[in-house]
Amino acid sequence: MSKRAKKTTTPGKREKNKELRRGQLIRATIRSVARRGFAETTMADVTKDAGLSLGLVNLHFKSKDKLMEETLRHLSEEYESACYAAMASAGPTAADKLRALVELDFSPKVCDRRKLAVWFAFWGEARSRPTYQQICARNDRRYEKIITDLCQEIIEVGAYTGISPITVASGLSALVNGLWLDLLLTPEDMPVENARNISFFFLSHAFPNDFTKP
Length: 214
Known about the structure:
This protein is mostly helical and about 210 residues long.
Protein backbone atom coordinates (compact mmCIF):
# COMPACT_ATOMS: atom_id res chain seq x y z
CA MET A 1 0.00 0.00 0.00
CA SER A 2 1.43 3.34 -0.98
CA LYS A 3 1.59 6.03 1.62
CA ARG A 4 0.52 9.52 0.79
CA ALA A 5 3.36 11.97 1.11
CA LYS A 6 2.94 14.44 3.93
CA LYS A 7 3.13 18.09 3.10
CA THR A 8 5.98 19.76 4.90
CA THR A 9 7.04 23.36 5.23
CA THR A 10 10.71 24.03 4.71
CA PRO A 11 12.61 26.13 7.28
CA GLY A 12 13.08 28.86 4.65
CA LYS A 13 9.37 29.03 3.94
CA ARG A 14 8.54 29.06 7.65
CA GLU A 15 10.86 32.02 8.18
CA LYS A 16 9.34 33.82 5.20
CA ASN A 17 5.83 33.25 6.57
CA LYS A 18 6.96 34.42 10.00
CA GLU A 19 8.33 37.67 8.58
CA LEU A 20 5.17 38.14 6.52
CA ARG A 21 2.93 37.79 9.59
CA ARG A 22 5.24 40.01 11.63
CA GLY A 23 5.04 42.71 8.97
CA GLN A 24 1.25 42.46 8.86
CA LEU A 25 1.03 42.90 12.62
CA ILE A 26 3.41 45.86 12.71
CA ARG A 27 1.52 47.64 9.92
CA ALA A 28 -1.75 46.96 11.74
CA THR A 29 -0.22 48.40 14.93
CA ILE A 30 0.74 51.59 13.08
CA ARG A 31 -2.81 51.95 11.78
CA SER A 32 -4.32 51.27 15.19
CA VAL A 33 -2.09 53.69 17.12
CA ALA A 34 -2.70 56.39 14.50
CA ARG A 35 -6.48 55.91 14.87
CA ARG A 36 -6.93 55.11 18.55
CA GLY A 37 -3.81 56.37 20.26
CA PHE A 38 -1.18 54.44 22.17
CA ALA A 39 -3.10 53.66 25.36
CA GLU A 40 -6.32 52.63 23.59
CA THR A 41 -4.65 50.19 21.20
CA THR A 42 -5.04 46.56 22.29
CA MET A 43 -3.71 43.28 20.98
CA ALA A 44 -7.27 42.42 19.93
CA ASP A 45 -7.48 45.65 17.88
CA VAL A 46 -4.24 44.82 16.11
CA THR A 47 -5.16 41.25 15.25
CA LYS A 48 -8.59 42.29 14.00
CA ASP A 49 -7.03 45.02 11.87
CA ALA A 50 -4.47 42.57 10.48
CA GLY A 51 -7.09 39.88 9.84
CA LEU A 52 -5.17 37.40 11.99
CA SER A 53 -5.85 35.47 15.19
CA LEU A 54 -5.02 36.71 18.69
CA GLY A 55 -3.01 33.52 19.20
CA LEU A 56 -0.77 34.48 16.28
CA VAL A 57 0.12 37.89 17.65
CA ASN A 58 0.84 36.32 21.04
CA LEU A 59 3.07 33.78 19.31
CA HIS A 60 5.11 36.48 17.57
CA PHE A 61 5.24 39.21 20.21
CA LYS A 62 4.08 37.72 23.58
CA SER A 63 2.80 41.08 24.89
CA LYS A 64 1.59 44.52 23.86
CA ASP A 65 4.82 46.06 25.16
CA LYS A 66 6.90 43.79 22.94
CA LEU A 67 4.68 44.51 19.93
CA MET A 68 4.98 48.25 20.49
CA GLU A 69 8.74 48.02 20.97
CA GLU A 70 9.17 46.11 17.71
CA THR A 71 6.91 48.58 15.89
CA LEU A 72 9.07 51.49 17.08
CA ARG A 73 12.21 49.59 16.12
CA HIS A 74 10.75 48.89 12.67
CA LEU A 75 9.95 52.57 12.09
CA SER A 76 13.41 53.58 13.23
CA GLU A 77 15.18 51.08 10.96
CA GLU A 78 12.91 51.96 8.04
CA TYR A 79 13.75 55.65 8.40
CA GLU A 80 17.48 54.97 8.72
CA SER A 81 17.47 52.83 5.56
CA ALA A 82 15.54 55.52 3.69
CA CYS A 83 18.12 58.14 4.73
CA TYR A 84 21.05 56.11 3.44
CA ALA A 85 19.19 55.28 0.22
CA ALA A 86 18.40 58.97 -0.34
CA MET A 87 22.04 59.95 0.13
CA ALA A 88 23.25 57.13 -2.11
CA SER A 89 21.02 58.28 -4.97
CA ALA A 90 21.83 61.98 -4.52
CA GLY A 91 24.57 63.97 -6.25
CA PRO A 92 28.20 63.77 -5.19
CA THR A 93 28.40 66.80 -2.88
CA ALA A 94 27.44 67.08 0.76
CA ALA A 95 24.91 69.78 -0.17
CA ASP A 96 23.30 67.35 -2.65
CA LYS A 97 22.98 64.73 0.08
CA LEU A 98 21.60 67.18 2.64
CA ARG A 99 19.07 68.40 0.07
CA ALA A 100 18.02 64.79 -0.56
CA LEU A 101 17.48 64.21 3.16
CA VAL A 102 15.22 67.26 3.46
CA GLU A 103 13.26 66.08 0.41
CA LEU A 104 12.93 62.67 2.07
CA ASP A 105 11.68 64.16 5.34
CA PHE A 106 8.75 65.73 3.51
CA SER A 107 8.09 62.91 1.06
CA PRO A 108 5.02 60.63 1.27
CA LYS A 109 7.28 57.79 2.43
CA VAL A 110 8.15 59.61 5.67
CA CYS A 111 5.60 62.39 5.97
CA ASP A 112 2.62 60.05 6.19
CA ARG A 113 0.21 61.35 8.85
CA ARG A 114 -0.32 57.87 10.28
CA LYS A 115 3.40 57.38 10.76
CA LEU A 116 3.79 60.88 12.19
CA ALA A 117 1.02 60.14 14.68
CA VAL A 118 2.79 56.96 15.77
CA TRP A 119 6.18 58.69 16.07
CA PHE A 120 4.72 61.36 18.34
CA ALA A 121 2.82 58.74 20.34
CA PHE A 122 6.08 56.91 21.01
CA TRP A 123 7.94 60.12 21.83
CA GLY A 124 5.20 60.87 24.36
CA GLU A 125 5.63 57.44 25.95
CA ALA A 126 9.44 57.53 25.91
CA ARG A 127 9.68 59.60 29.10
CA SER A 128 8.32 56.74 31.21
CA ARG A 129 9.59 53.79 29.14
CA PRO A 130 13.39 53.39 29.07
CA THR A 131 13.38 51.03 26.07
CA TYR A 132 11.44 53.50 23.91
CA GLN A 133 13.69 56.29 25.15
CA GLN A 134 16.80 54.36 24.10
CA ILE A 135 15.44 53.62 20.61
CA CYS A 136 14.27 57.22 20.05
CA ALA A 137 17.54 58.68 21.41
CA ARG A 138 19.62 56.35 19.26
CA ASN A 139 17.61 57.33 16.19
CA ASP A 140 18.00 61.05 16.97
CA ARG A 141 21.76 60.71 17.55
CA ARG A 142 22.32 58.92 14.25
CA TYR A 143 20.28 61.48 12.32
CA GLU A 144 22.05 64.44 13.91
CA LYS A 145 25.46 62.86 13.29
CA ILE A 146 24.65 62.40 9.59
CA ILE A 147 23.45 66.01 9.35
CA THR A 148 26.41 67.35 11.35
CA ASP A 149 28.95 65.52 9.18
CA LEU A 150 27.31 66.85 6.01
CA CYS A 151 27.25 70.39 7.40
CA GLN A 152 30.91 70.09 8.38
CA GLU A 153 31.81 69.08 4.83
CA ILE A 154 29.76 71.91 3.33
CA ILE A 155 31.54 74.41 5.62
CA GLU A 156 34.98 73.09 4.72
CA VAL A 157 34.41 72.86 0.97
CA GLY A 158 32.53 76.16 0.77
CA ALA A 159 35.00 77.96 3.07
CA TYR A 160 32.20 79.23 5.29
CA THR A 161 33.31 81.02 8.45
CA GLY A 162 31.66 81.83 11.75
CA ILE A 163 29.20 78.96 11.57
CA SER A 164 29.03 75.76 13.60
CA PRO A 165 27.98 72.47 11.95
CA ILE A 166 26.45 71.31 15.22
CA THR A 167 24.34 74.48 15.46
CA VAL A 168 23.02 74.10 11.91
CA ALA A 169 22.36 70.37 12.35
CA SER A 170 20.55 70.84 15.68
CA GLY A 171 18.56 73.74 14.25
CA LEU A 172 17.50 71.75 11.19
CA SER A 173 16.55 68.73 13.29
CA ALA A 174 14.44 70.84 15.67
CA LEU A 175 12.84 72.64 12.72
CA VAL A 176 11.88 69.41 10.95
CA ASN A 177 10.41 67.93 14.14
CA GLY A 178 8.35 71.06 14.70
CA LEU A 179 7.13 71.08 11.12
CA TRP A 180 6.15 67.41 11.40
CA LEU A 181 4.04 68.31 14.44
CA ASP A 182 2.34 71.11 12.50
CA LEU A 183 1.69 68.73 9.60
CA LEU A 184 0.10 66.27 12.01
CA LEU A 185 -2.03 68.70 14.01
CA THR A 186 -2.89 71.44 11.49
CA PRO A 187 -2.32 70.08 7.97
CA GLU A 188 -4.72 72.66 6.52
CA ASP A 189 -2.44 75.47 7.78
CA MET A 190 0.85 73.79 6.94
CA PRO A 191 0.93 72.10 3.51
CA VAL A 192 3.88 69.80 2.94
CA GLU A 193 5.29 72.12 0.28
CA ASN A 194 5.39 74.97 2.80
CA ALA A 195 7.19 72.81 5.33
CA ARG A 196 9.77 71.82 2.72
CA ASN A 197 10.28 75.45 1.69
CA ILE A 198 10.76 76.57 5.29
CA SER A 199 13.50 73.97 5.72
CA PHE A 200 15.30 75.07 2.57
CA PHE A 201 14.87 78.72 3.58
CA PHE A 202 16.73 77.90 6.81
CA LEU A 203 19.53 76.16 4.89
CA SER A 204 19.78 79.02 2.38
CA HIS A 205 20.62 81.36 5.27
CA ALA A 206 23.16 78.96 6.71
CA PHE A 207 24.78 78.05 3.37
CA PRO A 208 23.81 80.74 0.80
CA ASN A 209 26.29 79.47 -1.81
CA ASP A 210 24.84 75.96 -1.75
CA PHE A 211 21.11 76.46 -1.16
CA THR A 212 18.87 79.03 -2.85
CA LYS A 213 15.83 80.55 -1.19
CA PRO A 214 12.66 78.73 -2.28
